[in-house]
Amino acid sequence: MPPFWPFKKKETVASLDEEPPAPMVYKRGEDPNARPAVTSDAGAYKDALALFGGGSETVEAASDQSVHYDGVTVTTKPLEAAPEVSSAPSSTENEAAEPPVDEGVTWVHHTDGYHYKQRADGSFEPTPYTLGEDGTYLPYS
Predict the structure, then answer these.
(1) Measured between alpha carbons, how far is residue 140 from residues 17, 87, 113, 123, 126 in Å?
(2) 109 touches 115 (CB < 8 A)
(3) Which of 103, 107, 141 minimizes the C-alpha distance to 124?
(4) Fewest C-beta atoms under 10 Å: which of 1, 37, 55, 60?
(5) Residue 59 pLDDT
(6) Checking phi first, is residue 39 left (phi over 0); if not, alpha (psi -120 to 50) or beta?
(7) Backbone torsions φ then ψ of 96, nearest 5 degrees
């Protein structure tokens, strides 16, 4: 007598008579994921262009924006002193007050629109500054 087998016997699966799928044929230079153009929705396409394309029905390829990047530029405009206040400033005025003028500081204007304070040793302060209407640098808050 054969030994006891704890698992069930495999049942035979009936095979189906069907044809194998047709082979995929690619040509050199052809994109296998390209889809044919849909021309049945030409009106909807023009409506979408008018809505999202600013009213223009022409399609333009996206341009490379990295060619417009200027990087970091150095400004030579010196820091002007803030006007003195005769009364004692409150806590909100103290936070918005101009930081003291440091000798050997260079203001660097970055393309993100903010100005950064570069110390004499070449390191930068992490606080971004904005240029006020009167030419003073105000910390961004």
Answers:
(1) 74, 24, 11, 19, 11
(2) yes
(3) 107
(4) 1
(5) 66
(6) alpha
(7) -90, -5
